[in-house]
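Q: I'm teaching a short session on how sequence maps to structure, and I want students to see two examples side by side rather than one. Could you give me a first protein with its sequence written out and its structure tokens following it? Keep the formatting plain so it prints cleanly on a handout.
A: Of course. Example one:
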Amino acid sequence: MGGRRIIKAAAVLIALGYSSLLVYQGGVTFNFQENRQGSVQVPDLSIEPVTKTNIYDSAVNKNISLNDIFISVKTTKHYQHTRLPIILKTWFQLAREQTWFFTDTDNRQLQDQTNGHMVNTNCSASHQRKHLCCKMSVEYDHFLESDKKWFCHFDDDNYVNVPRLVSILQKYNHQEDWYLGRTSVYEPVKIYKKPTNKLMFSFWFATGGAGFCISRSLALKMLPVASGGKFISICEGIRLPDDVSMGFIIEHMMKKNLTLVPEFHSHLEQMKLLIPETFRNQISFSYAKAKDEWNVVNVPGFDTRYDPTRFLSLHCFLFPHFKFCPR
């Protein structure tokens, strides 16, 4: 079995090895990076379960429930004291059993706080392409091992509006092939052949920084080329990041188009342009910091010195019944 997998992976690499790549990313106006020296500290707010049981009742169809969704969050040891505490105190409390964190180190405290949902991928903590692809590969394989109907990936700088995620997925049939997300570019990725620079093919991809979802039907069809670490081989063959490689597999190899869902948001957008009256309709939010300027949602609530990412304020705006929210 191992020999067959190696042969298949080698075939993919041979087929792609002679190509070169040009990626055009138009219209991306933000290139924010979190200032590690000015790390975000979250006070020791109480972590508590949801007290209301009807937060999902506004959904139209009941064919998909929260328990049908595998939510994965890609993170690293560098952010276990800054980004993760914010998630654990807010939206994670709405999906404790459905959310898994994929990291690169062991942390007993976080394992306890997530009820054993921290997965050490044994991938490197660096932000290099190969290591990001390594984590995505482990995320995908863990979803395949579950009995879930949807695989939804997010980053550790995302806030996920869990009820809205459920209601959006209820509009799609998990037994059909669906790739849901939002692009961060204005043109598709284009792959050319050298030395003629002839366009070989192009494809769209959903940016991982906003999150994306894949139906189980489509995920199973990807199994021959993406499972068991073969996803990493694809990444290395086309030399593109994890979310772009996911788009390559789905749009080019599987011939399934990305379905645009504008309710996903990344820090490549101007978060302040999102209108508070629409927050309940959005699936994901993000934040970033460049020098001394934060790219965050404009939401009333806690003092910015206490809540610079605005995720605590956003959570209380959406779910004011949490005890730590201002009264």
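Q: Perfect. Now a second example for contrast.
A: Example two:
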Amino acid sequence: MSHTVITTTTTTRTTGDGFSLNTGYTRTIPGLLKIGQMLALLIAFLCVRCVRGWPSWAAFQYFEVVALWFLIAFLIFFLMHLFRLQAKMPCINWPLTEFFHYSVGTVLILIASIVAAVNNGGVSALVAATVFGFIATFLMAVSLWTSYSVTCGPHQTGASV
């Protein structure tokens, strides 16, 4: 009796250094939300940073730190999606990580914006920073809701009832 063994070899080639730019992400809803969040946080940070003589030093220092931290965090997430780097690190659950950052960011930016609204002293740049803080909070809440539906939403199972 004769046996035949067939072996198939598949190779995958990447061009260049393996990075591919996902420019289509900038036109998706999550991409546009991240761009809007980063712009709102950048404008809020710059409005606070450029004002001299804050009415409440501690409140606006907190506002600056929170705005800058989440600006950097969302920039990192944006670049991760833009260059498709999350596929290179499969050990991290990226949707859950983004959900966590959106939930913490929404709460902390909301608190910072409320504190800034109470302590702005009528300084127009600080009022503008507060408004952009609330805009960033709204955009983060929308991202939180959309990432929740991806991360924790209903999943299809193979079980039949």
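Q: What should students look for in example two?
A: Point them to this: Residues 33 and 151 are 17 Å apart (CA to CA). Also worth mentioning: Confidence is low (pLDDT under 50) at residues 10-15.
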